[in-house]
Amino acid sequence: MIEALLFQGLVGLSEAMYLWMVAAGLSLIFGVLRVLNFAHGSFYMLGAYLTLTALRAFGGNFWLALAALPGICVIAWGMERFFLRHVYHLEVAYQLLLTFAFVLIFDDLTRLVWGPVYQAPPTPRGLDRAVSVLGRPFPLYNLFILGVGVALGVGLWLLLERTRWGRLIRAAAMDREMASALGIRVPRLYTAVFVLGALLAGLGGALSLPIHAVSPGMGELIIIEAFIVVVVGGLGSLTGAFLSALLIGLLHAYGIVFLPVFEMALAFILMAVVLILRPWGLFGVREG
Questions:
Q1: Domain map of the chain by residue range?
Q2: Most buried residue among 135, 203, 253, 262 by CB atoms closer than 10 A?
Q3: What is the per-residue pLDDT across 177-190, written as a single tens digit (0 to 9) for each?
């Protein structure tokens, strides 16, 4: 019984890594730019579709297909440079309206270019087998995703805490006017952070190809849970986003076993409890 529970928990943790990749970008963008980007899930969807297109072009080589991800950077750069930059000083409602408009645009463009049919590519060669974990076969690709998620968390921590660029990001996040007065090119920094956040979401979409079916609208499904992760963990906290993603992944994994009727509601219940007891999130900073 204990082994079965541990195995189910491992399944939940591997699934949580996709959520973590999207939530990391969302949290990073909000923490620095103070923008709630509702279209962030669209980058997850576009990352999946661009990689799928490259996968076919490269004869099924999944690793070469990941070279399509810089396309996400170009799209994110254009969105931030020509649209979002002009609403930073406006109320959050205007930002949400603008980014929601991009959700509709990206969804329709996806249907126009790739069609409305669900698609599911095969698992990459070399990772398309299972290994024995706790006496049960466990997909090797899921273990790979677990490793990628942890490596991504360590990499982001090193980037923000141990590099000059990370110090500039933290300075701009704390006081934009002071950072600008000290010579930091804040608009360029904001663009770079937005592109990095979008790339993280695109990476999550690309790596989800062998596990989740690709379809228009898949971005809306992931962004809802990503928002829950960010709210529970604390807006702008990457540590909170990581631990919250793990928590919600485990809730889903064990909810399917013990509370299948309420499994979909567990994450929302958790968010409601956190908002009542600690509105700024588990690892967020109370303002005011």
A1: 16-216
A2: 203
A3: 888 887 889 999 99
